[in-house]
Design a protein that fits this description.
Elements: H1 2-9, H2 11-17, H3 21-40, E1 46-51, E2 56-66, E3 77-79, H4 80-86, E4 95-100, H5 102-105, H6 107-134, E5 140-148, E6 152-156, E7 162-166, E8 181-192, E9 195-201, H7 205-215, H8 217-220, E10 224-232, E11 236-243, H9 250-255, H10 263-268, E12 273-278, H11 283-290, E13 296-302, E14 307-312, H12 314-321, H13 326-335, E15 338-343, H14 361-369, H15 375-379, H16 383-389, H17 394-409
Parallel strand pairs: 2-3, 7-9, 11-12, 14-15
Antiparallel strand pairs: 1-2, 2-4, 5-6, 5-8, 6-7, 8-9, 10-11, 13-14
C-alpha cells in the first residue's frame, strides 16, 4: 500500500505539469533504482514492476539460496534458514524472490526518495519547457504581466511558464500594468541550473519583421519579402521590402491606403516612425531611397571602404540627418554603408567647428544633432525654428547667429 500511496500522491502533480503517466512511471523506476543502490549497493538483482493503469508498483529482490554460514554477498545470496522463513520448501541453489516494502528502506531513505522524485519531475518538466521554447526562438509570443520589477517585467503564459522581458528589451515608451497582455519575440532561452530562462524582446528588429508577417497578408504568403529591418526602438525604423511579382507594389501593400495596414504595427511599437522602402540591387538608388524623405542630388560611392558621399541641397540636409541623427544612422545600417552628407555649394560655407574659439563645443554639438554643422545651415533657419529643434535658449541662438554673420560680413 505504501508504494501505491506514493504514486497516487504524485498523480495530482503529474496532472498539473502535464506529464503523462508512462513518463511518470519511468521517472519512478529510475528514482527507486537509485534508492536501492544506496541501500543495497547494487540494483541488478531487483525487479521493479510498474502497472501504469493502476498506478501500482512492486519491488522484488532476487537472491540465490546458499547453506547457512556460507553467505558471502548478502545482496545476492540468502541463507537456507532465512529462505525457509519465506517459503518452507526452499532448497540450496534455488532462486528466492522477496518483495521489498518502502518501510524496509528506512524513513530517511523514503524522505530522500520523495525529494528526488520531485526533483526529477521538475527536471523533466523544465527540459520539456526548454525544448518547447528553443523551437519558438524568433517567433512572436503573447503572455500576461504577472509582476513588474525594476529591471524586468515577469510574464506568465497560459500554461504558467515564466517569461522575462528585461528593461533593455522594452520600448522606451512601454508602460505595463499587472494583467496586461504583452507581445514580443522570443529572443533567447537559457538553462540556469535546471530552470529555463525565457527572454522576450520588443526592441529586436526581428519583432518588427514578424509583425509585418502577422499583419500584412502578402508578407505572410511570401508574395512580399522583407529584405532588411533596422530600428531605433520607439523612435524610428526602416524596412526594405521586395516582390518577385511586378504587379505588386510592395511599399503600397505594406503601408496600405492612408497607412491603414501599418497603423497597427506603429501603435504596437509605441508610435515608432516606420519608413518602408523598395529594395533594389542598384546601390546608388538603394542609398537614395534609404535617406528618404530627403531628396538626394548626387552620390559618390567608395565600395572598397563601404562609404558613400551624398550631395544634397541645403534645405534637404536636416531631413537626411533626421532628429538626433536617426535617419542617417538607420540609412547607413540598412545599406551597410557609412554615409557622409555634403551640401551643394559647401565650399563657400564654413564648418561650425571652425568657430570653436567663440562658440562653446556643447552648443556646436547641439546644433550638429539637428543636422546643422555649417555656418550657412544655421543662418538659413529662423530663430524660432532653431529653438524648437534644439535644447538651446533663444538668447544663446541669437549670440551664435551674431558670431556667424560677422564671419560672412567680413
Amino acid at each position: 500500500m505504501e508504494n501505491l500511496a506514493l504514486i497516487d500522491s504524485f498523480s495530482e502533480f503529474k496532472d498539473d505539469k502535464l506529464i503523462d503517466r508512462v513518463t511518470l512511471m519511468a521517472i519512478l523506476e529510475d528514482v527507486f533504482r537509485n534508492a536501492l543502490k544506496k541501500k543495497f549497493g547494487d540494483d541488478d538483482n531487483f525487479d521493479i514492476i510498474i502497472n501504469p493503469d493502476k498506478g501500482d508498483l512492486e519491488i522484488w529482490r532476487n537472491r540465490i539460496v546458499v547453506a547457512d554460514g556460507e553467505v558471502e554477498e548478502p545482496n545476492q545470496e540468502i541463507s537456507l534458514s532465512a529462505a525457509r522463513k519465506i517459503e518452507p520448501d526452499f532448497e540450496v541453489g534455488e532462486d528466492v524472490s522477496e518483495e521489498v516494502k518502502l518501510i524496509d528502506l528506512g524513513r530517511r531513505a523514503i524522505l530522500a526518495l520523495r525529494q528526488n522524485l520531485i526533483s526529477k519531475i521538475h527536471e523533466h518538466d523544465n527540459t520539456n519547457i526548454y525544448k518547447q521554447f528553443k523551437d519558438l526562438i524568433g517567433d512572436i509570443y503573447t503572455a500576461e504581466v504577472h509582476h513588474i520589477r525594476h529591471k524586468a517585467v515577469i510574464l506568465l503564459d497560459d500554461e504558467g511558464n515564466e517569461i522575462i522581458l528585461p528593461k533593455e528589451k522594452q520600448i522606451p515608451s512601454d508602460f505595463f500594468r499587472k494583467g496586461d497582455n504583452v507581445r514580443g519575440v522570443i529572443e533567447n532561452v537559457e538553462l540556469k541550473g535546471s530552470k529555463p530562462g525565457i527572454i522576450m524582446s520588443r526592441t529586436s528588429p526581428l519583432f518588427l519583421e514578424k509583425l509585418f508577417e502577422q499583419e500584412i497578408p502578402e508578407v505572410f504568403d511570401g508574395l512580399i519579402t522583407v529584405k532588411n529591418v533596422v530600428r531605433i526602438p520607439g523612435e524610428k525604423a526602416k524596412v526594405a521590402v521586395d516582390s518577385y511579382d511586378d504587379r505588386i507594389d510592395p511599399v503600397g501593400a505594406c503601408v496600405g491606403m492612408k497607412g491603414s495596414r501599418i497603423h497597427g504595427i506603429v501603435r504596437e511599437l509605441g508610435n515608432e516612425n516606420i519608413d518602408v522602402i523598395n529594395y533594389t540591387n542598384n546601390l546608388q538608388l538603394y542609398i537614395t531611397r534609404a535617406l528618404s524623405p530627403a531628396k538626394v542630388t548626387s552620390i559618390k560611392i567608395d565600395e572598397e571602404n563601404k562609404r558613400a558621399e551624398v550631395i544634397l541641397k541645403p534645405e534637404e540636409v536636416s531631413k537626411a540627418i533626421g532628429r538626433g541623427g536617426h535617419n542617417i544612422r538607420l540609412a547607413g545600417q540598412l545599406t551597410g554603408y557609412e554615409i557622409d552628407v555634403f551640401r551643394e555649394g559647401a565650399e563657400e560655407d564654413v564648418e561650425l567647428s571652425e568657430f570653436s574659439d567663440e562658440i562653446d563645443k556643447w552648443i556646436i554639438d547641439e546644433l550638429s544633432k539637428a543636422g546643422l554643422d555649417t555656418a550657412k545651415s544655421v543662418l538659413e533657419q529662423d530663430v524660432e525654428d532653431l529653438v524648437k529643434r534644439t535644447d538651446l535658449e533663444e538668447e544663446t541662438i541669437n549670440e551664435v547667429i551674431r558670431i556667424l554673420r560677422e564671419e560672412f560680413e567680413e
